[in-house]
Design a protein that fits this description.
- Helix 2 (16-28) packs antiparallel against helix 5 (139-163).
- The chain has a six-stranded antiparallel β-sheet with strand order 3-2-1-6-5-4, with helices on both faces. Strands 7-8-9-10-12-11 form a six-stranded antiparallel β-sheet.
- It is elongated and about 70 Å long.
- The chain has two domains: 2-163, GAF domain (Beta-Lactamase, 2-Layer Sandwich); 177-327, 2-Layer Sandwich (Heat Shock Protein 90).
- The protein has helices at residues 2-12, 16-28, 79-86, 101-109, 139-163, 199-213, 218-238, 272-280, 296-303, and strands spanning 33-42, 47-52, 69-73, 90-93, 114-119, 127-133, 177-179, 187-193, 243-252, 255-264, 306-313, 316-327.
- It has 340 residues and is of the alpha+beta class.
- Keywords: Kinase, Serine/threonine-protein kinase, Transferase.
Length: 340
Amino acid sequence: MVQEQVTDGLESASDVDGVATAVLHLLTARPDAVRAGLAVAEGGGRRLLLCLSDTLLPDADGTPGAPAWCEIDAYDDVPLTRAVRTGRTVAGALDTLALPEAFVERQRGFGVSAIVAAPLDAERRCGALALFLARPPAPEDRAAVEVLAARAATALQRLRGAAVGDPVEADDGTDDTDDTDGGGHGRAARLRLPGEPVAPGAARRFVRARLGEWGVDDDVVDDALLCVSELVTNAVVHTGTTVDVDVAVEDVVGGARVVLGVRDHGSRPVDPRALVAAVRGGDAGGPADLVVSGRGLGLLDALSSEWGAEAGSPDGPGLRVWCVFAADDPGADHVGGSGR
């Protein structure tokens, strides 16, 4: 009965946390399972967002745990990343998989002796699912992980589609896109996304679509996509709140500029001035909770012509990080480079 309930939860999950909860509970219910993990590819495949079943354990007072996500480098040599990179299932005892010694020792500390990791989708390489066992894996363990990985991929794809559905409406009920003169000038758009691993991909598609419609040069679009991906991932990992993405093309003397902003609604105290000063002073990541894969805000500093941060939001706490990219007039025959 428990297995049927969890299975139904996977099919009906309304968010990524629901998918993670369902598959991880189902895997850890298997005989001799020690833990399980779900990894979702992000940042153009440079990193994985990982949720471990450990986070679902009840607190001391019996309160159920909630999924928590952390980042791992997609190029680390561990079973989950191997499964994503190769598109093939990785299965075996720890001492047969040629894994880094530090990783093996950590897993043994949990009582793990073997791992089965299967890609969510062998072609798209969008993530992987892993089962950590206290015994050598049996064929049925491998089959179970592969079936669940495929089902998780289907559920996540459904959620990704939903995340970029209808445009988000502004507070006054108007559409989120504004074309003030119909000629490609003064355009602005906003999108609100859930604080989930699907958000960075949805943000990239949103920004790419809007800037493409407005005739912005591909080089500028590429820079904007890198920055929005880093900023939204930052917000999701470190606040878990909804994320507002805004993008606009503004007229300036001699051309135009693209202004991109990402606002979270977290309550952590951040001094925007200290944040900017830290990055420009050589601390490429800024404060520890704003570092993304060792690049984060340093990437903004390198790719944009200017950037900054402002605390607060119209409806309470939060932080908005913005960046500017120089461009030629989108109404001209050719839109120039990034102007960096």
